[in-house]
């Protein structure tokens, strides 16, 4: 497996004056200018080729993606989720959860078995989707596979990126939603204003702790590297621990995507870059590519699981042991 030494870049594409699209990601994923800036919708008619991934214009509830202010049947529940998340995700809580779950002593099973468990999970923090999570995993993986057919590690990363949501199930501890899903952010330093529903941090015990808030670095230093920064606890960090401790052969870019794909204050808003090192900067390029598919592939379009299953089983065998400790 070869990873390009030159990382993917967002490249400009010339358009006529009436065109709505001015950016194209490597692999052909077209991002209209207003979408690149605002996380909105992508119109199918502006795609370069019919063979490329077609992103839906709206989410499953008729709203633009990641619109936390739109009125929809899920918005009140989503806001209540973030209220609880922001109150309870403290530095001490995160340390405790990492120490407990890195033991990986709860379950032993394969990657695919874990994928099937996600049929029982719905993410209360997601304003765009209410389907079982395995649908989203396959939607994302198949969308990336269309545009990056040679990067099989990226297909598998897409398939497994949300497997940590099994933390919601009883055999994995039955954690509350606020401790499993939702956007992530660093702890041990100030809560940036770009974080969704930031107002609820005022009730977090860390909010007024001078050790964490006297400078923008908190307990960290400039360029310390995200590997050395504690993130709010959830499925991202848990799946990263599972993959790393079970000695996956996925490249570092894959592990970075798994661990930080919910870190929207960084990859959407550009905050917390002062904590990154050079390796983080390179891996972030892959994460930004991945995120467009992770976000815009959420739809009501169904994937034929049995048809694609053999391909993903072959990737699992390539990059993971047959059984993993969880």
UniProtKB/TrEMBL annotation:
Example of a GO MF term: inositol oxygenase activity
Lineage, top-rank taxon, reads Eukaryota
Q: What is its EC number?
A: 1.13.99.1
Which Pfam family, giving just one, matches this sequence? Answer: MIOX
What keywords tag this UniProt record? Ascorbate biosynthesis, Cytoplasm, Iron, Metal-binding, Oxidoreductase
Reactions catalysed:
myo-inositol + O2 = D-glucuronate + H2O + H(+)
Give the residues the record marks as binding Fe cation: 136, 161-162, 235, 261, 294
Cellular component aspect of the GO annotation: cytoplasm
Query: Which pathway does it serve?
Result: Polyol metabolism; myo-inositol degradation into D-glucuronate; D-glucuronate from myo-inositol: step 1/1
| Location of the protein in the cell | Cytoplasm
What are the binding positions for substrate in this chain?
A: 66, 123-125, 165, 182-183, 261-262
Q: What is its main location?
A: cytoplasm
What does the record say about how the cofactor binds?
Answer: Binds 2 iron ions per subunit.
Q: Which cofactor does it need?
A: Fe cation
GO process annotations (BP): inositol catabolic process; L-ascorbic acid biosynthetic process
Which family does this protein fall into? Answer: Belongs to the myo-inositol oxygenase family.
PANTHER family, per this entry? INOSITOL OXYGENASE 2, MYOINOSITOL OXYGENASE
Task: Indicate what this protein is called per its UniProt record.
Answer: Inositol oxygenase
């Amino acid at each position: 497996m070869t990873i390009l030494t030159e990382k993917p870049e967002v490249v400009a594409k010339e358009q006529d004056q009436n065109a709505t699209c001015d950016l194209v990601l490597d692999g052909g994923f077209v991002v209209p200018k207003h979408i690149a800036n605002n996380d909105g919708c992508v119109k199918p008619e502006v795609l370069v080729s019919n063979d490329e991934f077609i992103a839906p214009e709206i989410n499953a509830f008729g709203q633009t993606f990641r619109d936390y202010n739109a009125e929809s049947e899920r918005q009140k529940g989503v806001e209540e989720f973030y209220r609880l998340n922001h109150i309870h995700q403290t530095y001490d809580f995160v340390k405790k959860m990492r120490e407990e779950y890195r033991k990986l002593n709860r379950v032993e099973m394969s990657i695919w078995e874990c994928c099937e468990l996600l049929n029982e999970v719905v993410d209360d923090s997601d304003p765009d989707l209410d389907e079982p999570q395995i649908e989203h995993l396959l939607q994302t993986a198949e969308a990336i596979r269309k545009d990056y057919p040679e990067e099989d590690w990226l297909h598998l990363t897409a398939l497994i990126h949300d497997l940590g949501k099994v933390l919601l199930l009883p055999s994995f501890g039955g954690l509350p939603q606020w401790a499993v899903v939702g956007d992530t952010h660093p702890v041990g330093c100030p809560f940036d204003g770009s974080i969704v529903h930031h107002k609820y941090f005022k009730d977090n015990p860390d909010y007024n702790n001078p050790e964490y808030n006297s400078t923008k670095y908190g307990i960290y230093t400039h360029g310390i590297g995200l590997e050395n920064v504690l993130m709010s606890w959830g499925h991202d960090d848990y799946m990263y621990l599972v993959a790393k401790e079970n000695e996956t052969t996925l490249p570092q870019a894959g592990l970075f995507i798994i661990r930080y794909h919910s870190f929207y204050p960084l990859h959407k808003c550009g905050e917390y870059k002062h904590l990154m090192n050079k390796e983080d900067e390179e891996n972030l390029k892959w994460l930004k590519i991945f995120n467009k598919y992770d976000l815009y592939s959420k739809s009501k379009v169904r994937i034929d699981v049995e048809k694609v299953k053999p391909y993903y089983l072959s990737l699992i065998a390539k990059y993971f042991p047959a059984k993993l400790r969880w």
